[in-house]
Design brief:
The protein is an alpha+beta fold. It has one domain: 3-Layer(aba) Sandwich (Beta-lactamase). Helices cover 40% and strands 19% of the residues.
């Protein structure tokens, strides 16, 4: 009986070696995470990717996309005191006139909460803009997402999942204007020079940006995208104290898998 059971375990172990093992070796600090092929939608890794969580300033990916849908880059708005808000800022000043393009740089590089409110005001007002964000989420099939504001500040009605944010990132990566802005490392608006918070731009080969985020309640959140040899991947981590390293590990694994598949197809 013992011998028969040993044989069974041996056969079972051999069968396991034949199964895909893309992510077994990856150990992440994130509460929720996903790695997805941006073009095919194939999921290469996921960890609690359907869990609804706070997403902090990664929200601003949607903010930028809605602004690009509803305004021209050359449209202008005069900053008001109502645009001043807590948290990260591009340090707008009441009375200052800025273009939508300048606000988008402030939104995506230094995560300006003031830029988010100014963009919303420029595109029909806050309530209408947030509704447009939720409409866009529904259009993209982001079924576990709800937006309550354009900047990502904590709200019980403001949440998403790693999976939904990967869908959003894959869609955003198709927009050349969005890609240009979120991959810019530094930009000057008036007298201010802004530096992109996304360290992966200099740490991951082929990184084309996306968005960082943090609040005390959400923890560190990060959405990124990288492209190599015609393969484009998006990674999302939520509540992750080691997000830079985790994204690098995900891309190392993901591009290795894609290269292996391409080699098999051409063999």
């Amino acid at each position: 009986m013992l011998r028969r059971w040993s044989c069974f375990l041996l056969v079972f172990a051999m069968l396991l070696t034949l199964l895909p093992c893309r992510a077994e070796a990856i150990q992440l600090s994130a509460t929720a995470a996903i790695l997805m092929d941006a073009d095919s939608g194939e999921i290469l890794y996921e960890k609690d990717a359907g869990r609804r969580m706070r997403i902090a300033s990664t929200t601003k990916i949607m903010t930028a996309l809605v602004a690009l849908d509803r305004a021209r880059l050359t449209d202008t708005i005069t900053v008001t005191a109502a645009h001043m808000v807590e948290g990260s800022s591009m340090y707008l000043k009441p009375g200052e006139t800025v273009t939508v393009e300048e606000l988008l740089y402030g939104l995506m590089l230094c995560s300006g909460n003031d830029a988010a409110l100014a963009l919303a005001d420029c595109c029909g007002g806050l309530e209408e803009f947030v509704q447009a964000m939720n409409d866009k989420a529904a259009e993209l099939g982001m079924q576990d997402t709800s937006f309550a504001n354009p900047n990502g500040l904590d709200d019980e009605n403001h949440y998403s999942t790693a999976r939904d944010m990967a869908v959003l990132a894959a869609y955003a990566a198709q927009n050349p204007t969005f890609r240009r802005i979120c991959s810019t490392r530094t930009a000057t608006v008036g007298s201010r020079t802004m530096t992109n918070h996304n360290k992966l731009l200099s740490q991951v080969e082929g990184c084309i940006g996306m968005k960082t985020g943090y609040t005390k309640a959400a923890g560190r959140t990060l959405v990124s995208c990288a492209q190599r040899d015609g393969c484009r991947l998006v990674a999302v981590t939520l509540c992750d104290g080691n997000d830079w390293a985790d994204h690098k590990s995900l891309y190392e694994m993901g591009f290795a898998v894609q290269n292996e598949e391409n080699t098999e197809e051409t063999a």
